[in-house]
Amino acid sequence: MHLQANDVVMKFKGVTALDGVDMELRKGEIVGLIGPNGSGKTTFLNVLSGVFTPTNGNFRMGDRQWSKVSLREAARLGIRRTFQNIRLFPSFTVMETVEVASAWLDKGDRRENAQIALDALNFGQYRDRIASELSYGMQRRLEIARAIAGRLEFLLVDEPTAGLNHGESQDIVEVLQRIRGQRGCGIVLIDHDLNVIMNVCDRVIVLAEGKIISSGTPQQVRSDPKVIAAYLGS
Amino acid sequence: MQLALQQFINALSLGSIYALVALGVAILFSILRLANFAHGELMTTAGFTLYMTLASGWNWVLAVIAAIAASVVAALILERVAYRRLRNAQPLTLLMTSFAVSVALQSIFLLTFGARPKGIELPAFVDASFRIGGMRVQWLDIAIILITAAIVFGLTLFLRKTVIGLALRSAADDFQTTRLMGVKANALFVGAFVLSGMLAGIAALFYFATVPNVVPSSGFEPMLKGFIACVIGGLGSLPAAIVGGFLLAFLEVGSDALLSDNFSPYLDAIVFLIAIVILRWRPGGIFGVRLTAEQRV
User: DSSP class of residue A217?
Assistant: First the structure.
């Protein structure tokens, strides 16, 4: 199944954050979304996940087509996400954090389903810990566990390695690859760590000033003169 | 010693009523950022329902159920008619709307029931009491304390163990992210208003059992105390609202007991002054709830 975005435009009071973006995401594929600060990467994820209603554009996934989608509808379509700045529920335990998602997005026993998502990220022994008391790296992983509970078609991950050391970043990369393998979902990964992007992604899309300036395999993008000029530098 | 124990029970009983009002206010504020000044009118709705049903000869159990149900229905009507369209409005807009709703409801009560107090014909057992040594204790106070404890326990279980309870708690932390978990916004709003209406109804029963007459503005004073309890505890937090309710009651009963009768007319002013001092010391309330710029109303 594909998730297709056509001619997506997002304007904020005259500032154009996305300017006619066309993108096709495929299940089972990890796509890296890179570009300079302010290029529209997070805005695109916000539009896909229903946080923002685009000024223009339409989307298609399977036989579903839409031009705007609510947060809830996006989640129920299986378009799930994490945030650049971690947004957990501070007073919740690890178990409760995932339980909310499995209760509303999955069938069957919510605690069992939540436990499956937690086990996928090796959270077994931490299930009763308060989410906000976990280490930063574990909070990042918990956000991912919450995002994979219930229906999952496409996982949008916004800078999951930000603030993490090399070992923790590597751990997140392995987690994403494992989720892709186990769930067969498509993953859109925004990250400023180009080593992560180049190592884990099947395809890379480069945004600059709200437009796609390049896309292809990591090797193709790395050697694209437009990308070097706009983002990578010499 | 006996007097101190008597005052302690009085403060616990009064604190229970304030805590229930404060909880009802805090639930809506924590989830919707709505400072619902019409909460007092939900209590008045329950009061007039109690008056009408008991005056019509209803059994008191049915009258109690009807009063709570009326408060819940009134809360749901407010949500549908006044607040639903304002979900994304600024907190100040919500605040002004709640003032307007409060005044409109008081006017409706005035037109329907008139300005004269309506005496509620409470069953005789409300005045029943027992003695411990030389001290006379009202069963009503004991019932208020125990029922409030049971309600707080039940509410805690509801919020921790049920699907809608978890969603309400997560929405209080982060409404947008909660919707990303597939939660229906309507379910959250309706759930919050039902809880708030139910708490207002129960608080009204206790309040009108101690002040057995109802006028259109009856709900104002307990609502104001409930708000102050919330602010003292820490606006937006449910445990803080409970602590604030009991603290306010202990301040009130303590001031009344310690000061001479000459100060009685100024009791509220003295209590509010102490509340101001507490807030000067802890601007976010006792529990120090930090509010973002958006949340400050």
Answer: -
